[in-house]
Q: What sequence folds into this?
C-alpha cells in the first residue's frame, strides 16, 4: 500500500516537473524573440548570438575554400562582385552589416552564405548569369539570408525541438554548446527551409529595386537554374549533388511565381557593359590546375601524369577527386593522398594504410610504365547508380613520387553487363608521366561575350564560335536561344573558346 502511494507521489512530481519545464520553455521562447529590423518580424535566435555567428563563419571560411577547390584568381572579377554587393548595401541601407565576397574556383553552380557576413559564389554560377541584374539578384539573395539570420533561426529551432522532445532540463546548455561546437569546427553549409528561401527572394527583390537593378532578373535566373538542372540530366549527370545550388537553394516553380508577382517594374535598358567586361574570359568547366580532359586523355600538369578515360564515361572532375561513371555499369574514382605515405612501398601502403580494414583478394605489386604500384580487390553488395547487387571493387595504388600516391578505385557489376578487369587494366596502364608538349595542351575553355555583327543561323554560330563538349546544348543554356533560330544583328551572346 505504501509502495503504491509512493509511486503515485513520484508520478505527480514528474508531471509537475514536466509542466514546470514546459512553462519554462514557453517563457524562454516568448522572452527571447526580438524584432529583426530587416524582416520586420520577431525572430528566435536565443541559442546563437551575432558573436557566435561570426566565430562560425571565421572558422568555416578556409574549410569552404579548400572544399570547393580554392579561390578563383581574378582580382578584377573579385573587385567587381564586391562593388555590386557594396552598391546593394548602400542603396538598401544595409551598411551596419559587413560582407566578405569570395569567388570559388569550381565549375559547380552554387552560391551560399555563411554566418558572419561571408558570401560565396562559384565561377560556374557567375558564368551562368546573363547580366549584372541576375548576378545582383544572387548576391542580394545571399545577403538576405544573412540579414534575416536564417542560420541562427534554424539552429535555435533545432535546439528547442530537442529540448521540447526530451524535456532534458539541466543538460540543455551542454547539448547546445556541443551542437554549436560542431558548427564551429565542422564544414556545415545550411540548407534553408521553403519559407526561408521565399523570404530571401522577397527581400532580394526589394534590394534590387532600391539599387536600380531589373527585379525581373530574379525570375529569369531561377528559370535558368531549372534549365541548367534539365541540361545536366539530359547529358547524363546524377540529379543530386550535395555541392550544388539545388541541394541548398532548390529553385522551385513557387519561387519563380513569387518573383514574378513581386516584380513591379522593369529596366531593360540598364547598361551591362561592366558585367560583359569583367566576366568575359572566365574559365568555363575544368581549370587545368585541377586537371583537364583533352579528348579521351585526362592530363594533370601539376601532378605530372596523364591517363585515358573512355568517352563512354561521364567525367566529373571535383576538387577532392575525379569521378567517372558509366551509368549502372561502372564507376572510377581517382584521388591523391600524401598522408602517411612517405615511407611506405605500394604494397604496404595499399594493405596497411589505405585499405587496412578490407579483406582483399590477390594483392600484388605492379609496374605501371614509370611508376611502382599495387592492386587488390574484393566483392560486396552495393550500388552503381540505379543498379543494386553484387559488385567488384578493385583498388590500385600508384606511387607518383616520394610523398604522393595516386589512388584508383574501380567499381563494376559482378555479372550482367559488366565492365571487366581487362577494361580497367587498360585504363590503369595508360597512366604515365607527361612531357612539356602535352602540358601546353592543357588550355582552359573560357566564356566570352560577342556582339553579333549580322543575322546568323544557330548552326553557323555553333560551328564558328563554340568549342568544347556539348556545344549546342551549352549555347542554348547560356543564351536562352533555341535551336533553328536566326540570331539577330546586335545581340550580345555568350560563346566558349579555348584560350590561355
A:
Amino acid at each position: 500500500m505504501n509502495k503504491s502511494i509512493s509511486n503515485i507521489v513520484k508520478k505527480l512530481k514528474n508531471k509537475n516537473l514536466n509542466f514546470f519545464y514546459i512553462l519554462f520553455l514557453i517563457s524562454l521562447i516568448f522572452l527571447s524573440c526580438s524584432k529583426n529590423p530587416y524582416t520586420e518580424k520577431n525572430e528566435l535566435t536565443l541559442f546563437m548570438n551575432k558573436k557566435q555567428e561570426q566565430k562560425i563563419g571565421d572558422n568555416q571560411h578556409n574549410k569552404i575554400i579548400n572544399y570547393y577547390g580554392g579561390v578563383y584568381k581574378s582580382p578584377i572579377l573579385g573587385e567587381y562582385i564586391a562593388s555590386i554587393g557594396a552598391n546593394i548595401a548602400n542603396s538598401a541601407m544595409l551598411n551596419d552589416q559587413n560582407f566578405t565576397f569570395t569567388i570559388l574556383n569550381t565549375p559547380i553552380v552554387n552560391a551560399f552564405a555563411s554566418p558572419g557576413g561571408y558570401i560565396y559564389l562559384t565561377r560556374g554560377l557567375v558564368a551562368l548569369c546573363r547580366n549584372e541584374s541576375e548576378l545582383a539578384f544572387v548576391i542580394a539573395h545571399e545577403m538576405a539570408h544573412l540579414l534575416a539570420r536564417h542560420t541562427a533561426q534554424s539552429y535555435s529551432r533545432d535546439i528547442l525541438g530537442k529540448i521540447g522532445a526530451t524535456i532534458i532540463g539541466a543538460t540543455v546548455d551542454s547539448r547546445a554548446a556541443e551542437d554549436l561546437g560542431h558548427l564551429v569546427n565542422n564544414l556545415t553549409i545550411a540548407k534553408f527551409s521553403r519559407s526561408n528561401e521565399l523570404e530571401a527572394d522577397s527581400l532580394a527583390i526589394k534590394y534590387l529595386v532600391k539599387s536600380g537593378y531589373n527585379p525581373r532578373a530574379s525570375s529569369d535566373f531561377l528559370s535558368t537554374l531549372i534549365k541548367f538542372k534539365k541540361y545536366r540530366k539530359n547529358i547524363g549527370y546524377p540529379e543530386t549533388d550535395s555541392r550544388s545550388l539545388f541541394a541548398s537553394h532548390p529553385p522551385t516553380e513557387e519561387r519563380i511565381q513569387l518573383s514574378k508577382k513581386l516584380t513591379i517594374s522593369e529596366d531593360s535598358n540598364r547598361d551591362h557593359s561592366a558585367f560583359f567586361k569583367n566576366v568575359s574570359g572566365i574559365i568555363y568547366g575544368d581549370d587545368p590546375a585541377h586537371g583537364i580532359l583533352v579528348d579521351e586523355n585526362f592530363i594533370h600538369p601539376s601532378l605530372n601524369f596523364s591517363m585515358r578515360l573512355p568517352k563512354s564515361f561521364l567525367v566529373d572532375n571535383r576538387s577532392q577527386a575525379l569521378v567517372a561513371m558509366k551509368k549502372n555499369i561502372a564507376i572510377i574514382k581517382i584521388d591523391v593522398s600524401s598522408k602517411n605515405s612517405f615511407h611506405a612501398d605500394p604494397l604496404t601502403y595499399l594493405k596497411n594504410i589505405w585499405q587496412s580494414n578490407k579483406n582483399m583478394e590477390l594483392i600484388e605489386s605492379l609496374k605501371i610504365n614509370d611508376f611502382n604500384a599495387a592492386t587488390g580487390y574484393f566483392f560486396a553488395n552495393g550500388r552503381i547508380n540505379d543498379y543494386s547487387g553484387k559488385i567488384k571493387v578493385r583498388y590500385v595504388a600508384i606511387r607518383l613520387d616520394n610523398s604522393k600516391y595516386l589512388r584508383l578505385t574501380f567499381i563494376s557489376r559482378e555479372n550482367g553487363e559488366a565492365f571487366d578487369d581487362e577494361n580497367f587494366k587498360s585504363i590503369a596502364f595508360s597512366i604515365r608521366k607527361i612531357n612539356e608538349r602535352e602540358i601546353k595542351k592543357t588550355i582552359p575553355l573560357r566564356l566570352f561575350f560577342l556582339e553579333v555583327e549580322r543575322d546568323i543561323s544557330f548552326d553557323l554560330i555553333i560551328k564558328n564560335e563554340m568549342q568544347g563538349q556539348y556545344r549546342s546544348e551549352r549555347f542554348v543554356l547560356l543564351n536562352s536561344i533555341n535551336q533553328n533560330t536566326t540570331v539577330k544583328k546586335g545581340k550580345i551572346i555568350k560563346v566558349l573558346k579555348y584560350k590561355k
